[in-house]
Write a structure and sequence with these properties.
single chain; seven-stranded mixed β-sheet; signal; CHP03437_C
C-alpha cells in the first residue's frame, strides 16, 4: 500500500514529492528513490557564485539553527536513520538559486528531504553512533551554521493526522483503507501506523536510500493499545518513503470501543497517539437512552438527551429530540431538534418544511426558531465520552404551543442503524410570560421629551440584533380615531421609522444621525438625540420626541416588541403623558466631548412657535443646581436679543449681543465669546449657540443642562442633555 494514499499531504515532505523535495548532493552521496531514480543536482557555475557569494559569506549572514525535533513526534529525540526537522533562519536560499546548501553530521552527509529559509527536514546518517553529534550547514565550502544533537539508539515517533505529533495517528487496516471515524479499527484485526526513528534493518540500508522491498527491523518493540499489549507486532522500513517505518499489530479482541491510545517502546518511548476502535462485537445498533427531565412543565427548559453506541460515540452519526403530541407530529405544531455529531451542528425543523442550521453548540444565534420553539444555541452543550453522548439543549417555547406533549429521542449511526422514535418522557408546555417592558419617564407633561424604553430579551438570546421595538403615543392602541405618534425601531437594520400621515412608515434613519425626515402632523423625531443599545440583557431605546398641536392632551404610552426569537408582546401600556404648551429643551450639540473652547448649539421647542420662548439657558456644571461647585451658565433673553453669563457667586455679566464683536465676558468658570455665538428662530424651534472657553475653576467633568420659559411663564425645568469634559 503506497503511503501516499493514506495521508499524502502530511507525509509529502518525507518522500520524493516532485517539485517539493530539495536534496543537497555532495560527492559520493546520492539520494536514491525507486520511484523517481537518482535525483539530479547541479554544481553552481563560477558566474552564479560570483553573483551570489557575497550575500552568503558576508558578516551580516543570519543563518542559524534554533531548534531540532523528531519529524513525526515533534519531540527532541533523534537517532541514526531517523528523520529530524531543523528550525531556524536562512537555512536555505529561496528559489530560484543554483547555490547548494548541504548538511553534515559529524562530517557525514545528511540527506535533505525538504528545505525552506526557516525549516529543513533531514535524515540523520545511519553510520553514526549514539552520543552527541555536531550538525553543520554549509554553502560554497563554508560552514554557515552549527547545531549539537544528542543521538539515542532509537527515537520512535508516530506520524499524526494533524502533523503535530499529537492526537489521532495516521493509520490503515490490512487492506490499506485509512482508519477514520466512519471506518474504525476492528478488534482482532491488523492495523498499521507509520513512524520514524526505529533503527537499523536486516539487511542494513545505506543512508539516503529507500529499499526496493520493505525490510524488517533488527528488534521488535513493544506496542500498547488502550491498557492492553498488542500482539503480532511487525516493524518494517517502507519501500515508499525515506526513513519511514510501518508499524503493524493485531488489535486485541478485548479492546474497548472508542478512541484508544497507542504507544511504542524500543529502548525509548514514542509519543502517545490515538486511533478509533469499533466495539468488539462488531457494528451494534445505537440506543436513545434517556432525556432529563423526563417530566415537568414550563415555557423554557434545558433538555439533556443521552444517546449511546456500543461501537463508540464516534460511530454515532446524529441524534434527535422531538417535542410533540405524537411521533409524526399529530397534525399539530412540534419542536424537532437535530444534532449532527460529525459536523457538531444543531438544526431545527422550520415552518417551511426545511431544517434551519447548522449552528455550533455554544454559539450565540437566534436562527433556530419556528412557530413552536426556539433553540438557545449559546447554552447548548455536547459531551462525548466513551460510548455515550450527552446533548443538552435549552429550548424556549412560543405562545400558542402550550399543552401536553411527549418527548421522543432518535439516533442513527454510521452503519445506517436507526433506533426510530423512542418515547422517553412527557412535558407540559406553558405560554411564555409577557416581558416587563418599561418607559422612563412613565408620566409627566410637555411638548418635548426624551423617553427611554426598555425591552428585555428572552434569556439566552440577549444582545442579538434581530426583531424590533415600537413606542406609541395615543389614546388607544388603535389610535382611537385621534392623531397619534407611532415610532418603530428595527434592530437588525438599526433604523428609526415614523408612521406617516399617508399610512406608510417614513424612514429609516440611523439613531444619532441628523435628519428632519421623520415628522408627521402629530410629532417629529429628533434622530440625532435618539439612540439604541443592548444593555444588561435588554434593548435600551432612547427616543427624543417633539409633539405638535394636533396631539394636545392626555395620551397613553404603549410599548411593543418582537423579540429576536419571534415573540410579539402586542401593545402594552407602560405610561401616560400630557402634551401641553410647555416649552422643551429638544437637543444639545455636542452631547459629549473634551475641549478648551467649544460652541454649544441648543434647540428649544415650543408648540406655539420658537418666537414664543421668553428666555433659554445652557448650563454646564456638576448638577442642575451647580452641586456646590463653579459652573458655566449662559442666559438668553429673546425680547432684547441679549446674552448673559451667570456665575456661581451670584454675579450676572452682560448683556452682549450674539454675533457681535463685543469683548468676551468672563467669570471664574468660563468665558462667553459673543462673536462665536448666534441665535435663530425657525418654526417651532429657537436655536441658541454659545461659544465658550473654559477656565480653571470649572470641574473636570460636567453635565449639560437646558431650560426654557415661554411668554406664558410655562417652564420646562432643567433637562439633562449630555456631558462634557472641559479643558481649562
Amino acid at each position: 500500500m503506497n503511503l501516499l494514499k493514506v495521508r499524502s499531504v502530511v507525509l509529502c515532505a518525507l518522500i520524493s514529492c516532485a517539485g517539493t523535495a530539495l536534496l543537497a548532493q555532495s560527492a559520493g552521496s546520492q539520494y536514491q528513490s525507486r520511484h523517481s531514480g537518482p535525483v539530479p543536482f547541479h554544481l553552481p557555475t563560477a558566474n552564479s557564485i560570483s553573483e551570489q557569494a557575497a550575500a552568503l559569506i558576508s558578516p551580516q549572514a543570519t543563518t542559524a539553527v534554533t531548534s531540532a525535533v523528531n519529524a513525526a513526534s515533534f519531540q527532541d529525540t533523534h537517532s541514526p536513520g531517523g528523520l529530524s526537522i531543523l528550525y531556524g533562519s536562512d537555512l536555505a536560499l529561496p528559489l530560484p538559486t543554483t547555490i547548494v546548501t548541504s548538511v553534515k553530521a559529524n562530517g557525514v552527509d545528511a540527506p535533505i528531504l525538504q528545505s525552506s529559509p526557516t525549516q529543513m527536514t533531514i535524515q540523520i546518517p545511519r553510520e553514526l553512533s549514539p552520543g552527541t553529534i555536531d550538525l553543520t550547514i554549509r554553502r560554497l565550502g563554508q560552514t554557515v551554521a552549527t547545531k549539537s544533537l544528542n543521538l539515542a539508539q532509537f527515537s520512535p515517533g508516530f506520524y499524526t493526522v494533524n502533523g503535530t505529533g499529537q492526537g489521532r495517528a495516521i493509520a490503515e487496516d490490512a487492506a490499506g483503507v485509512p482508519i477514520t471515524d466512519s471506518h474504525p479499527a476492528v478488534p482482532g484485526t491488523m492495523v498499521s501506523l507509520f513512524a520514524t526513528g526505529l533503527g537499523p534493518t536486516t539487511p542494513p540500508v545505506p543512508t539516503g536510500q529507500i529499499p526496493p522491498t520493505p525490510l524488517p527491523t533488527t528488534i521488535t518493540p513493544i506496542v500498547g493499545i488502550g491498557n492492553l499489549p498488542a500482539t503480532g507486532v511487525l516493524i518494517q522500513l517502507t519501500n515508499t518513503s525515506l526513513g519511514v517505518y510501518k508499524v503493524s499489530f493485531l488489535v486485541p479482541a478485548a479492546t474497548g470501543p472508542g478512541e484508544q491510545s497507542v504507544f511504542l517502546a524500543s529502548g525509548a518511548v514514542s509519543n502517545v497517539v490515538t486511533i478509533p476502535v469499533q466495539g468488539s462485537l462488531g457494528p451494534m445498533p445505537p440506543t436513545a437512552d434517556s432525556i432529563t427531565p423526563s417530566s415537568g412543565s414550563g415555557s423554557t427548559q434545558t433538555f439533556t438527551a443521552v444517546f449511546s453506541d456500543p461501537n463508540g460515540v464516534h460511530d454515532l452519526a446524529w441524534g434527535q429530540i422531538l417535542i410533540a403530541v405524537a411521533e409524526n407530529g399529530g397534525g399539530q405544531p412540534f419542536c424537532f431538534i437535530h444534532y449532527d455529531r460529525s459536523g457538531n451542528g444543531l438544526w431545527l425543523y422550520g415552518d417551511q418544511g426545511f431544517f434551519l442550521g447548522p449552528v455550533t453548540p455554544g454559539t450565540v444565534s437566534a436562527s433556530l426558531k419556528n412557530n413552536a420553539c426556539a433553540v438557545n444555541t449559546s447554552g447548548a452543550t455536547f459531551d462525548p465520552a466513551g460510548t455515550s453522548l450527552h446533548l443538552s439543549v435549552p429550548v424556549s417555547f412560543k405562545t400558542g404551543f402550550a399543552g401536553s406533549k411527549y418527548t421522543y429521542l432518535r439516533a442513527y449511526d454510521h452503519s445506517e442503524q436507526d433506533t426510530g422514535w423512542v418515547q422517553r418522557g412527557a412535558f407540559t408546555v406553558t405560554d411564555p410570560p409577557t416581558p416587563a417592558l418599561s418607559v422612563t419617564p412613565a408620566s409627566g407633561s410637555g411638548a418635548v421629551q426624551t423617553f427611554t424604553g426598555t425591552y428585555p430579551d428572552a434569556p439566552g438570546f440577549t444582545g442579538i440584533n434581530l426583531g424590533w421595538a415600537q413606542m406609541l403615543f395615543a389614546v388607544a392602541t388603535d389610535g382611537g380615531g385621534q392623531p397619534f405618534c407611532l415610532v418603530h425601531y428595527d434592530r437588525a437594520g438599526n433604523g428609526l421609522w415614523l408612521y406617516g400621515d399617508s399610512g406608510f412608515f417614513l424612514g429609516p434613519v440611523t439613531p444619532g444621525s441628523v435628519s428632519s425626515s421623520l415628522q408627521n402632523s402629530a410629532c417629529s423625531i429628533d434622530t440625532a438625540g435618539s439612540s439604541a443599545a443592548n444593555v444588561n440583557g435588554a434593548l435600551e431605546w432612547k427616543l427624543s420626541v417633539a409633539f405638535k398641536s394636533a396631539i394636545l392632551g392626555a395620551r397613553k404610552i404603549y410599548l411593543r416588541t418582537l423579540s429576536p426569537i419571534g415573540l410579539d408582546t402586542g401593545f402594552l401600556q407602560s405610561g401616560s403623558w400630557t402634551i401641553d404648551g410647555t416649552p422643551g429643551a429638544q437637543s444639545l450639540t455636542p452631547g459629549s466631548g473634551t475641549a478648551h473652547t467649544q460652541a454649544f448649539t441648543a434647540n428649544f421647542y415650543d408648540l406655539d412657535g420658537g418666537a414664543q420662548i421668553s428666555w433659554a439657558r445652557i448650563m454646564l456644571g456638576a448638577a442642575s443646581n451647580g452641586g456646590g461647585q463653579p459652573y458655566c451658565l449662559v442666559h438668553y433673553t429673546r425680547a432684547t436679543n441679549a446674552m448673559y453669563l451667570f456665575g456661581s457667586d451670584g454675579s450676572v455679566l452682560g448683556p452682549v449681543t450674539p454675533g457681535s464683536i463685543a469683548a468676551p465676558i468672563v467669570n471664574s468658570a468660563c468665558m462667553l465669546i459673543p462673536s462665536g455665538s448666534a441665535v435663530s428662530v425657525s418654526g417651532n424651534t429657537l436655536t441658541v449657540t454659545a461659544s465658550l472657553s473654559f477656565l480653571s475653576a470649572i470641574p473636570a467633568s460636567v453635565q449639560s443642562y437646558l431650560r426654557a420659559v415661554d411668554v406664558n411663564t410655562l417652564d420646562s425645568g432643567w433637562q439633562l442633555r449630555g456631558s462634557f469634559n472641559p479643558v481649562p
